[in-house]
Amino acid sequence: MTRERLAPGVFDLPVDRIRRGFYTDVYFCRTKSVLERKDMHPRMVMQVFQKKEAWLGGMDEALACLKLASGHFAPDGSWVDGWNSLEVRALYDGDRVSPYETVMTIEGDYSLFAHLETVYLGSLARGTLVVKNVRAALDAANGKPVLMFGARHDHYAVQPLDGLAAHIAGIDQVSTDAQGSLWGGKGIGTIPHSLIASCGGDTVAATRAFADIYYPDVNIVSLVDFDNDCVATSLAVARELKQRLWGVRLDNSETLVDRSLWEEMGYFKPTGVQPELAFRVREALDREGFTHVKIIVSAGFDAAKIARFEAAGAPVDAYGVGSSLIRGENDYTADVVMLDGKPCAKVGRQYRPNDRLERVE
After folding, report:
1. Is residue 133 within 8 Å of residue 327, measured between CB atoms?
2. Range 237-250 burial, b when 16+ CB lie within 10 A, else e
3. Phi first, then psi: what are they for 271, rounded to 5°?
């Protein structure tokens, strides 16, 4: 089966700035300048790897940087493309990778791509981090949807790559259009606390106003923790909206105990969103016949917390996960390992061929 890579153009890269080394550690730019001014053209093999069990992400963007920005500026200021002079082999986004496994090699005149190392390593580091984190969350969720709510926790410029990485890992519900822009997705979400506040703190009124505009084109999900009384608020919204209400979202602060749990404290952690709260909301909704209303939980979720909810059998239909999907580190390293066909690597690093790599056209 032929596997596909994304075309470089979809990333809308700042190509001229990448070519000029604007985003690159300056010592690589100076190295390129030395090689060009001294008319040195070493043919090197650059080997790229990371050190963990992981799932690969960011590769298509890394390749886009190489395809669009390898080369050099001619004396008249025009750009001379270098991609066709390079031989690049790589794994695919979504591939499982082992510690120290070579994920990409770049072979050719080093002066053509010396200025790109910072950029392609950064794409791989960020993409792989998000893919790995998303896979962990999805594995913990046992097939239930995980919604990506991480956009607000980092700079807006990383949203397209983060959303692509999440999609590669298996998430198709993101919160911004930017996160879906590289794979055709659109942002989804619930009503926010700010809309409830705009309606004087009345969650029912806010949800009704939202539904009046967006139903049935959008699934109506009400955020029901504004008064820290998820059971009462869920019932009030369900009674008002009936079949128009698709779901409720529990998002209580980790410093508060929801009112429905005040009489049950003592044998579990009561603060924030806990399995016991989901049980109470489910029981209340079902008791009044609102069995169609789904429950989404958010606030401080990561793979471990999802696993805890699943182990408890919590009646949750989907998990909203934010910063834990984009936090951590999964760094990459690039080393020269061959020079003009002969081994040439710093001590402790050597050429590690990988027959899984495929030639990139």
Report:
1. yes
2. bbebbeebbbbbbb
3. -80, 150
Cα(59)–Cα(30) distance, integer angstroms: 26
Is omega for the bond preceding 42 within 30 degrees of 0, making it cis?
no
Q: What is the pLDDT of residues 34-60, one digit of tens each?
A: 999 999 999 999 999 999 999 999 999
**CB-based contacts of 238, cutoff 8 Å, min separation 6:** 245, 248, 285, 288, 290, 293
Burial of 337 (0-12, 13-18, 19+ CB in 10 A): buried
Neighbours of 283 (CB within 10 A): 12
Q: State the DSSP code for 101.
A: -
| pLDDT value for 1 | 65
Q: Which residue has the tokens 């053209």?
A: 41
Domains along the chain?
8-129+329-359 (3.20.140.10), 133-325 (3.20.20.70)
* Report field, pTM of the whole predicted structure over 0.85: yes
- CA distance linking residue 343 with residue 222, whole number of Å: 62
| Surface-to-core class of residue 12, CB atoms within 10 Å of its CB (0-12 exposed, 13-18 middle, 19+ buried) | exposed
Q: Give every CB contact of residue 179 below 8 A, 6+ residues apart in sequence.
A: 148, 151, 159, 160, 162, 163, 166, 185, 187
Indicate whether 89 pLDDT > 80. yes
Which tokens in the block code for residue 37? 């001014």
Two tokens at 162? 């983060």
